[in-house]
Each structure stands twice: as C-alpha cells, then as structure tokens.
Amino acid sequence: MGWLRLLRDTWVMTLRNLRRYVRLPQLLFFSSVQPIMFLLLFNYVFGGALGSSVRIPGIKYIDFLLPGILVQMVMFGGVQTGIGLADDMGKGIIDRFRSLPMTRVAVVAGRTFADALRNLVVIGIMIAVGYLLGFRFNSAVDALGMVLMALLFGYALSWVFAFIGMIAKDSETAQLASFVFIFPLTFASGVFVPIQTMPSWLQVFVRNQPVTFIADAARALALGINEHGAIWKTIIWVVGLLIVFVPLAMWQYKRRAS
Amino acid sequence: MMPYAFDLKNVTKHFGSVNALNGVSLHSEENKVFALLGPNGAGKTTIVRILSTLLEPSSGTALVHGLDVQKQPKEVRKIIGLAGQYAAVDEFQTGFENILMVGLLYGLKRSEARKRTEQLIERLDLADAANRPVRTYSGGMRRRLDLGASLVGQPKILFLDEPTTGLDPASRQGMWQIVHELIDQGTSILLTTQYLEEADELADSIAVVNEGKVIAKGTSNQLKSRLGNDMIEFKLNRLDDLAKAKEAVSSIAKSPADFNKDTLVMRVPVNNGSKDLMKLVERLNQARLDVEELSLHRPSLDDVFLALTGNVTHTDTPIKVNHKGVG
Prior knowledge:
By secondary structure, chain A is mainly alpha-helical.
C-alpha cells in the first residue's frame, strides 16, 4: 500500500515536471543544443589537434568523444534538477505539496525521474548527431549498456544536485553552486582527451575521480573494449551516491520546507 | 461531544529571537467560519501554517478536528484544505491539470479526481480557461484555481489565508460569493484577513490578532460595539437647518449626533450603516432639508486598532513579506 502510493505520487509529480518541457519546448531545445554545440566544437575545432592524442588503433576522435560528451551532458542535466527544486522551494506550491497527504519523497523523486526521462531524449538526439559525424557503436547490446550507464549516473547526480538546490537560497545560487563542482570534474577528466597527455600531478586527481571512470566505462561499452574495472567502479559510484544523497536530499527537503 | 473544528491551546512560536506567537488560545465550532483579523506581521499566517502542519509550534497544542498536528500530521493532512494569498498553483500546467494533480495527491481514484476537477472548474467559473497554462491567468483566476485545488479533497476544514488580498473589487466580490456557497454547504472555515469588512461579511466569530497575541474576540456585532459604530456624515448648507437636522436624525442615531459649527458637518453614529443611510435620506426628504457630502463611514482596521490598543496599525512597515513570513 505504502509502496504503491509512493510510485503513484512519484508518477504524478513526474508528469507535472515533464509538462514543463511540453509547455516550454525551448527548454528541451536548449538542453540539447548545448551538448550538440560541445560535440561539434570539440570534433571540428579541437578534434584535429586532440585526435592525434587518441592512440587506439581504428578509433576516430568522434568515437572517443561522444561517450564522454554524453557523460558531461547528464552532469549538466543534473544541475537542472537542482535549479528546478530551488525554484519550487521559493514558491507557494511547495506549501501546497507539504499540506497534502502525499508521500513526501515524491516531490524530489518525481523531479529526478522527470529529468532522467529528459536525459533519455537528449541522449537519443546526441547519438543521432554523433552518427552523422561518423560515430559508430560496436554492437546494439553495448549501445544499450552505455545509454543505461549514462542514465543511471545522471539519475544519481540528480539527487546530488537536488540536495545542493535545496540548500541554495534561490535558483541562481543553485546554478552557480552546482557549476563550481561540475567544471573541474568534467574538464579535469578523461572526457575530452586521454589522461596520459596531462601533467603527472593532475593525472593523480583525474585517474581517481568518478567522471573519468564513467567516461571510460561509457567509452568501453560504446566501442566494445574490455574495461570491466571502470564499469564496476561506475556502478559502485552510482549506488554510493544514491545511498548518501537520497537521504540527505530528503532530510534537506523536510528541513527547508518548515 | 463533537470536536472543535480547530483548537489552539496556549500556542507559541519563535523564529530565532522573534516571537511570532505569544500564547494563542482559540477554538471554533464545526461548520462555522472563524476569521483572524490583523495587520501584516500579526501572526495570522503563522497560526494557519501551524494548523496546516507546515510549522510546528514552539509550545502548546494545536488540534484539528481533535487530531494533534504534531503527533498525527498525516491524519490532519487528509482532512484539511489550504488556499491563500500566494496562489500555490503550477504555472506550466493548465488549470485542469493543477486541480487533477492535487486530487490525485489526496489519494483519490483517477476517475473520482477527474469528476471532482470537472465540477470545480465549472463551479469556479474557469471552464473557458481550463485547458490553458496557468501563466496566462489573471490574479483573480489564480486565486479561484488555488481555492479549487484546496477543495478537491473535500476537506472538513478549509484554511483561507488572506483570500482577497491584492484582488480588485470585482474579483473580491466573486471570491466572497464562492465562500458564501461553501458556508451554505456547511464547511468549517478559518480565514485570515486584513479587512474588517471581509471578516464582517463572512465570519461567525472574529479574533483580532496583533503582535502574536489575541487582543479581542467575539462576533462581528460584539466587536463592533466595542470598536465604534458605522457613522453617517453630511454637511448642512446653513446653520439655521440644525434644529431640523437634529430632529431628522433623532430616531436613527444610536447615540447623540456630533455637530461641528465651523464646518457644518454632522456625524451620526448608527447601528446598521446602509439601512440607516436610506432611512436618513427619507427623513431628510420629508423635512425638505438639502444636505451636501452625504457619506457612510464604517470602522476600518485602523479604527479597530485605535479602539483596542490606542495605536494605529503598522501597515506601512510590514515585518516580513514573503510566503513564509511571520504575517
């Protein structure tokens, strides 16, 4: 009974959040335009210079780049979760939800789930653009595995940003605070270039931060490279982030809303 | 014995060093309308937020239909509806989707939630706009939609936090009309307002709140008799008319009329402003007396406070104005 109610309330809140993308199509448009720009920019502007650093036989730069850009995209997408919740918290609607006999976790769970569905759409668009640029998956099963991995990582991150968004006073602060975390994590990682090209002190950080594993895991799946270590590390990170940040976000939701 | 619709026993609330409520005790019978009247920052919204489980009191107990808001918040949420000045509606959903969403979150079956949503949309005169996103709605429409959302769960008690603040006169009349219909159906209502006129129009009992304390309570008539009266004012053309005028008002005035010889203005305290005004016009006609600047004055919130505290309200300097304000 309690679980059924949780699922139902979460679905109601998911629909509510998805309607925002239907009523404001420009929101979905710009969520896709930014990663597509990154894809084109890196492939054509930096690709010539960076491509030669990728020394895997038979692998073009776009094959290396696309899985990494997808990881970057779900990270930027997670920021939207925080902004959306920060926005809700500043408005009367949150009082409405809190005065209703609904499952409390549904307010945040519905938001993170809606953002995961949006990520799925944007990932689809990105892969289509990637195909135009010459990207190819190794196999359909591997493709599915990569999409799933990016989605799960994005979902776990949504809870992290949900927590940050509800700590922030308003949506602008939520955005700024989130980017402070996101920028070093995405750029000082194996997303855009092979790690061996970096100075050795930086390699220590880059090799041990999650975005690198996840980019490696996504790339390994996309290209059919044997890289079980990165895949396992990614799964551990996803589970770990959820274990820590779901309760933190719920705690902050209850605290903030009183 | 039936439980009270709501029952506050010596409730206090502190926000840091600010005392928003200093020991409030109030209760209301079922199916009655109770109004909290006071200026911004008086503590009205804090009381509503405590009763609707959004805030916990610092001390004291708050019961809604016999349920303790701190110990049984989930049970309380099933039987309350909350609507207010901040119109808690979702901009990107249509009016229909907003009410339906709240109905589903009350735990109604989808078919039942749809049925009630359709009825409410019709009743609140939103049928034409039902399928438009709320961001295209006017202020009055948002309030009606907000009220609709609070009614879809068929609450036993409805909290209306300043339902007409900031509305134009026509929207205010419309809102009152709807509240009257709810009253006729026998819903318990707790309403907060800054307007004496609104409390007078809608409420069975009124508590006047200031600085976190109840400074007076009673029916509208009881309070008015403490607060001063409706007052009819007019100006004579000539001082010679004074005797005639005194005679004309003699049977209407509740207590002796006041006359200013310099301005020629006569002020007549009366019991029932609008009826007495018509009577007076009739008398003045019979006496063939021409007067100027005939007007009716009712006590305002300022008059209430002047009478009760000797101070005017601080409406120019609200303590804090946001939706979580002390207001």
